[in-house]
Design a protein that fits this description.
Blueprint lengths: L4 E6 L8 H14 L4 E6 L1 H4 L6 H17 L7 E5 L5 H10 L4 H5 L2 H10 L6 H15 L5 E3 L5 H18 L7 E3 L34 H9 L17 H14 L3 H7 L5 H28 L1 H30 L6
Parallel strand pairs: 1-2, 2-3, 4-5
Length: 334
């Protein structure tokens, strides 16, 4: 019996993933490759919804791919590729945009959030329509389930609506994907602003731990992480958000439960706790950084793996698009 298929993607818009990316997404992908037919892409088409330096985008696309392999994605167990290497994404994105109502697209809350930062006059049409391209990314591979967090749930609902609309209008073509809700995902917040999500676009450099960061810098940031009144190591979202965030990180990377950590550090104070946490973070991220650096040192091999992944992805995508073109009524090329 074939394994169910999952698909997810990550943008190449920084020189390193941060700890929130790793714990919230990439680490889950590594687990999913064991039991699912897993497709993972570096979504460079989505990246250009905001201005990008071309040379930097190319470099960051390789860095993102190398980190995925460095984190444990195995090209023998899953398909890792770059979105723009499979032109069917853009083609299906256009077809899906022709099925999407303007009002429907206008209701996507992430566009409102992102466009408010720079002003709607500065926001590109691509930024407005990117949830439609995201829908195309998913249905192109006849995806059964999509790993989603709360911030992406609305986009998955749009994907389901568009898949069902196409199937109703043109006949059964797409699998209607469902959410893969990852249980116990660590919600990692800014080290300096614990009420805000850790984010490249919103956090200060001191509030983020990068996957590729050097150990000395990681230790310094954790030592300076915001804590709360009192010295008790206790999980309390409302009164101790700083310590709660650090406990989440510690539990996620060490395998200990929060309750076990609270007991272990009873009467210890923040200094000892932060020092131990820093070593746990360094211990978890150092092997990923070293494997990533090794991948980046052999660019030809990295590009070969990505070409191999793109070929596997295109085999699936081209078959989907053959059906889509026929059902929409496009004249077949000879």
């Amino acid at each position: 019996m074939p394994r169910p298929r999952v698909l997810s993607g990550i943008q190449p818009t920084a020189d390193s993933f941060h700890l929130g990316n790793y714990l919230g997404a990439v680490r889950q992908w590594v687990t999913l490759q064991e039991t699912y037919d897993a497709f993972y892409c570096v979504v460079d088409l989505h990246a250009i919804t905001v201005p990008q330096d071309p040379a930097l985008l190319r470099r960051r696309t390789r860095i993102a791919a190398a980190q995925l392999f460095g984190a444990g994605l195995d090209p023998g167990r899953c398909t890792v590729f770059v979105q723009s290497h499979v032109p069917e994404h853009a083609e299906l994105g256009w077809i899906m945009s022709c099925l999407t109502g303007f009002g429907e697209a206008s209701r996507m809350t992430q566009f409102k959030d992102k466009s408010q930062k720079s002003g709607s006059d500065q926001a590109s049409v691509g930024l407005f329509t990117y949830p439609i391209l995201q829908a195309a990314d998913i249905v192109l591979y006849q995806t059964d389930q999509v790993p989603v967090g709360e911030d992406q749930r609305q986009h998955l609902e749009l994907t389901r609506d568009l898949a069902q609309r196409f199937n109703h209008r043109y006949g059964k073509t797409f699998v209607v994907p469902g959410p893969y809700i990852v249980k116990d995902v660590a919600k990692i917040t800014d080290l300096q602003e614990p009420s805000a999500k850790m984010s490249k676009s919103a956090s200060s450099p001191q509030g983020i731990i990068d996957v590729l960061e050097d150990p000395a810098s990681i230790r310094k940031k954790i030592a300076r992480a915001v804590t709360d009144l009192g010295s008790e190591i206790k999980f309390d979202e409302e009164n101790k958000p700083g310590v709660t965030n650090l406990l989440r990180i510690y539990a996620a990377l060490s395998g200990s439960t929060v309750a076990e950590l609270e007991e272990r550090y009873t009467g210890s104070g923040y200094g000892t706790f932060k020092k131990d946490l820093a070593e746990v973070v360094v211990g978890a991220l150092t092997p990923i950084r070293e494997r990533t650096e090794k991948m980046l040192a052999d660019e030809a091999e990295l590009d070969r793996l990505l070409a191999e992944g793109a070929a596997r992805a295109r085999a699936v995508a081209s078959e989907t698009m053959r059906q889509v073109r026929d059902r929409v009524g496009f004249l077949a090329a000879r």
